[in-house]
Amino acid sequence: MKRTFLPVKLPIVGWVLISALNAWAIVKGSFVDNGITWNYKISDTFVEVACSTASGNIEIPAEIIHGGKSYRVTRIGQFSTGSRGITGVTIPDGITEIGDSAFRSCYNLYEVSIPGSVTKIGDKAFYECSALCEVSIP
């Protein structure tokens, strides 16, 4: 009698496939803080925030809360056109990346404070920020 282990292999293959898919899962959400709408993405490798509506001086949040759990923000994503009125940005220590086109077309952005924790600034992160005059980097 020949034995086949196919029924045993399928659950293992299925488990591996599900595990691989979960590794790529990204949780998305949004919240409002001090009148600013923030969008966020959480994955197993980064926590990203981006602003959809803001003006004046803003401070990037250092952490977000999702599902009752606190997550340290590590990356700044692309701001939307609703944020063109931003004049100043303070980035907290702990942020490691400013994403591609993060502040693109924030025409009124005058000053930015970038902490030493930032190790990557993406392509065109400050493209068309024609008013940008002051950049503080430790």
Secondary structure layout plus pairing:
Layout: H1 6-23, E1 27-33, E2 36-42, E3 47-53, E4 55-59, E5 63-66, E6 69-72, E7 75-76, E8 85-90, E9 97-98, E10 111-113, E11 120-121, E12 134-136
Parallel strand pairs: 3-7, 4-8, 7-9, 8-10, 9-11, 10-12
Antiparallel strand pairs: 1-2, 2-3, 5-6
Describe the 3D structure.
By secondary structure, the chain is mainly beta. It has a single domain, classed as Leucine-rich repeat, LRR (right-handed beta-alpha superhelix), CATH 3.80.10.10. The protein has one helix and twelve strands. Strand 5 and strand 6 (69-72) form a beta hairpin. The N and C termini lie far apart (74 Å). 22% of the residues are buried.
Strand order of the largest sheet: 1-2-3-7-9-11
State the major sheet.
6 strands, mixed
Beta percentage is 35-45%
Mean pLDDT: 84
- The residue fraction in helices comes out at 10-25%
| CA-atom Rg in angstroms | 20 Å
Name of the CATH architecture: Alpha-Beta Horseshoe
CATH structural class: Alpha Beta
CATH superfamily annotation:
Ribonuclease Inhibitor
Please tag this protein with its features.
globular, six-stranded mixed beta sheet, four-stranded parallel beta sheet, 138 residues, Leucine-rich repeat, LRR (right-handed beta-alpha superhelix)
